[in-house]
Amino acid sequence: MQEQVAAGTRMPSGLASEAGAFSQAVTRPPGSRWLYAYVVVEIACQLALLFGQLAPARVVFRSAAFGASLALFFLVPGRAQVHHSARWLAFLVIAILTLSTLNPGGSTPLAVIAHWCFYMAVLAPIFWVARLEIGEETLIRLLLVYWLYCSVSSIFGVLQASFPGQFQPSISALIRPDKVMSIKLASGEWVPRPMGLTDIPGGAASSGLYAALLGLGVTIARPFRYASVAGLLSMVAGMVCIYLCQIRAMVVMLAICTTVLLGMFAISGRLSRMAFALTVGVGMALVGFYFAFALGGEMVTSRLATLVETDPGSVYGKNRGHFLTYALTEVLPEYPVGAGLGRWGMMNQYFGLPEDSIWAEIQWTGWVLDGGIFMAVVYPASVIAMIAAVVRVSLRSVGSEFGLWTSVVVAFGVGTLALTFSYPIFLSTGGIEFWLLTAVAIQAARYGPGALGARPS
Questions:
Q1: pLDDT interval class at 249 (50, 70, 90)
Q2: What percent of the chain shows pLDDT beyond 70?
């Protein structure tokens, strides 16, 4: 009788396997489609800005990339698959921001809420990417998508300088005609600084940075046929854009990124790869300068010469260093726990009051204004912790293609941190890209040889 009862309660093997498959499908974490969907939204919003007919909705398209990142914080199902110190520091950043909403010095309630959401949108990838089940190939594909887009943008930037008046998108309606940044070409003609696939004169410089750095990775890794040729061409186009845009911070950032990448190769013992990368990097920088000089003439050399006119500390102090001095010697003593949210940047311009506005040219000033000494310590600490986590992933993946690309992510991360001394990068799409790429590198390592040994939640 007992045997009959047991036999009667046993599920047929076919049904059992189907039930197991269904259970696994239900509990399996979401995959990389969420990542690709976000990148599509980000690129589509950027391309929408190129059309003058859509100019009245510029704020909507500019906000959509941030809104999509924030929305994914709530929409991506599941729980975090990995935990590391940068995530806990990011939670602490949110706590500081939330307390700052209670600061009576903040601007209008709408500006305060918008500023808080802005920060959350930039930070969001560190949380929602951790819920995804992605592999090493996801990081590689994601970087190749960014490389392709930025290479095309850089090519358009070169064409805009080569054929003045053509290939020119609509300039942002927020920029007054008399405030358009222009360059004088070797032909004597004045044109807006290369815009690439943006609506901002000089906007091609950021695309040029990606095209040059990721192009170096493509040249070394050769992930597809003729990748070496495509990588070299993208590096040249990127360098030409950086030179012509005359944004010296991007020149310095690219130099820092390349130096860090070479350092990662040296630390991991890949000396032959380091030598090859150094040779290619220097060679393409010179080739890019040749073409940029042919287009821009003395304007190119005179601008770059200011970077080596004296020691680096003096150059920075003369150009952007006084903003850091202002943040530490004037803003911080006046607002040791912050001035309240919504006091600077676009959130103040859109939703705040002019009389509440405080000028913040670099990220450090913004951190002090938004959370005082606490924010100025915790946020950069979270950035450093995130970079350190990717460094560990990269060193555990030595010899693989994934290890190469994580080294590129480390280089980009250090360059982004350096850019905080020149620009409020962590309240821009550049900040989202930092958290996105580093989070993807860490999450992908969970399923590959670069695993951090992180515990599932």
A1: confident
A2: 88
Q: What are phi and psi of 192, to 5 degrees?
A: -60, 150
* Residue 243 three-state SS: helix
Name the nearest CA neighbour of 450 among 416, 409, 411. Answer: 409
- Three-state DSSP class for residue 182: strand
Q: Which residue is associated with the tokens 């607002």? A: 335
For residue 288, give both structure tokens: 């890019």
Q: Report which of 94, 125, 118 is spatially closest to residue 386, judged by C-alpha positions.
A: 125
> Is the per-residue pLDDT at 90 higher than 50?
yes
Question: Which pair of tokens denotes residue 5?
Answer: 């009862």
Nearest to 206 by CA among 400, 412, 414, 450: 412
Burial per residue of 407-444, b for 16 or more beta-carbon CB atoms within 10 angstroms, e otherwise: bbbbbbbbbbbbbbbbbbbbbbbbbbbbbbbbbbbbbb
Tell me how far apart the alpha carbons of residues 403 and 391 are, in angstroms, rounded to a whole number: 10
Domain coordinates in residue numbering, the chain: 32-445
Place of tokens 């046929």: 225
Which residues, 6 or more positions from 359, have their beta carbon under 8 angstroms from its beta carbon?
344, 365
315 with 259: CB under 8 angstroms? no
Strands 190-192 and 182-184: antiparallel
Name the 3-class secondary structure at 192: strand
**Inter-axis angle of helices 401-419 and 136-162, to 10 degrees?**
60
Q: How far apart are CA 37 and CA 139, in angstroms?
A: 14
| Rounded Cα–Cα distance for residues 279 and 257 (Å) | 15
**Half-sphere exposure of 104 toward its Cβ, with a 13 Å CA cutoff?**
0
Number of Cβ atoms within 10 Å of the Cβ of 399: 12
Task: Give the Cα separation of 16 and 109 in Å (integer).
Answer: 56
Three-state secondary structure readout of 265-300: HHHCCCHHHHHHHHHHHHHHHHHHHHHHHHHHCHHH
Q: How many residues does the chain have?
A: 457
Which is nearest to 121 in space by CA: 444, 456, 433, 432? 432
Whether 426 contacts 120, CB under 8 Å: no
Mean pLDDT of 358-375: 95
Question: For 191, phi and psi rounded to 5 degrees?
Answer: -140, 155
140-147: average pLDDT: 95
